Amino acid sequence: MENENIEPLRKIIHVDMDAFYASVEQRDNPELRGKPVAVGGLERGVVAAASYEARKYGIRSAMPSVTARRKCPELIFVKPRFDAYKAVSKQIRDIFEDYTELVEPLSLDEAYLDVTHNHKAIASATLIAQEIRARIKLATGLTASAGVSYNKFLAKMASDYRKPDGLYVITPRMGPEFVETLMVGRFHGIGPATEEKMNRLGILTGADLKAQDLAFLQKHFGVSGDYYYNIARGIDHRRVQPDRVRKSVGAENTFFQDIFSLEAARAALSPIVDKVWRYCDQHGTRGRTVTLKVKYTDFQQITRSHTAAAIVLNKGELARLSGSLLESVFPIAKGIRLLGVTLSSLGGSQAQAEPQQLSLAI
């Protein structure tokens, strides 16, 4: 029969903690509450997270610390405490798993949940999202925003729509129209460079994106054109993947003083390689592609990559390949403020085709 492979729409929740790192710091240190706080690297680093008080000044994650300080002289920097963040993340993950085993963490502070079929047999995904938010607040003292919809893209968009401490639901009837009204820069999966390119092509809103045919989007955006074509129509067939294969392992370090010599750069690279390989050993991970990241004193960033003929089997080989990539950027005309090493080509899973879906109340 024609409808043999048709299944109902899924019920997806995206949970995103509000200013997570900064909120943990404000929770644990009452003197920080109500004040602009940045978690990150003080003099030489970047902002890892900013409290909502800091965001009012235009401070955001990945912003250079010097820029953040310029925007808000009263900004309070605190060193990150990843052990504390991981402990809170574990509490949150335990709450998720009370409802479903289909949990796909994106980071310590956000995850997708598929609650189409859930352990508590609750028919309403919205009710589950309300319960989860209340339980997170009770267990951790922190607030979470949540989005509920029939696919991952829209659930992610919904969780951002009422931040902070909000809940928003996008039903199948609302989905296509909701997408049309948004500026493309707000779409998850469309970064600043792609937004700029779309704007040059006259694509400013979701409605503009929807007006383009698939051939046009494939021509200008390659394989991503298919994704943009679908999300402009509120379509996203990706499943929640609780066992996603990690595709890369990386570490980086920002230095208190700029590095100018190859000898000093090699010395600085060694502990970064150690950290990457320590993770590989702990998790039995191996890869073939080594990528070196270099950020200069003026924040210009370059990368150099090499894919080995065989899997990198030991730390010595990773250090040798990383060192060769480092040598290739010398001599340098300006100081280096950051170095990073990533090992990738770790394996992965091929996306599976999804059957067509029918409507189901959220």
Automatic annotation (TrEMBL):
Listed PROSITE patterns: UMUC
Catalytic reaction equation(s): DNA(n) + a 2'-deoxyribonucleoside 5'-triphosphate = DNA(n+1) + diphosphate
Domain UmuC: 12-191
Cofactor: Mg(2+)
Record-annotated active site: 110
Pfam families: IMS, IMS_C, IMS_HHH_1
One GO-annotated biological process of the protein: DNA-templated DNA replication
Main enzyme class: transferase
Molecular functions (GO terms): damaged DNA binding; DNA-directed DNA polymerase activity; magnesium ion binding
Signal peptide: none
Database matches in NCBIfam families: PRK02406.1
Oligomer and partners: Monomer.
Name listed for the protein in its UniProt record: DNA polymerase IV
Gene name per UniProt: dinB
